[in-house]
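W.,

You were right to be curious about this one. When I first looked at the sequence I had no strong expectations either way, so I just let the prediction run and decided to look at it fresh. Below is the sequence, 171 residues in total, followed by the output.
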Amino acid sequence: MESHSPPRRAERAGKQSPTATNAYCLRIHSESSPVAVRFYGNILSQFESKTTPTEKEWVERARAAHAEQEYAKALACYEQALGVCLEVHGPDAVATGAAHEDVAAAHGMLPPEDHLDPMLTSYEQALAIRRRALGDGHSTVADSYNNIASTYLKMGQCRTALEYHHRALHG
């Protein structure tokens, strides 16, 4: 097994970016070493107390949680990323629409009885933003219509799903 040396003293003191440290820690964490898990927890807690994670860092955490099949944690991280996105870009930015899509997709990984309505709401918010910012003819608007249609299909509302699939195809 490959040995991993801990970051240099400057890195431990917080001089390395949280993103680089998270990437390093996730890599060693994946080997399930008790030392790595302890090290990762210590480093992460230092950064969490000193900095506010960026949207990208929240998305990275969400993807890591998703990879570990921790879907509720992934949803919470995507919601944090959305919050940062709203602060940084505003409610009408295309990036905010994408963040709403991420939240909706994360709801889709959880049991449907509690998550279909919030999933639909997030997809509808993404659609509204994308229509305003990009126009009805844009491919990501069609993707949003398709995602809403798929959600209605999961809800058993086939006729409404068909209407949204039609909008996805014909704008």
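Here's what jumped out at me. Residues 132 and 145 are 14 Å apart (CA to CA). And, maybe more interesting for your project: Residues 112-134 form the longest helix (23 residues).

Coffee later to discuss?

I.
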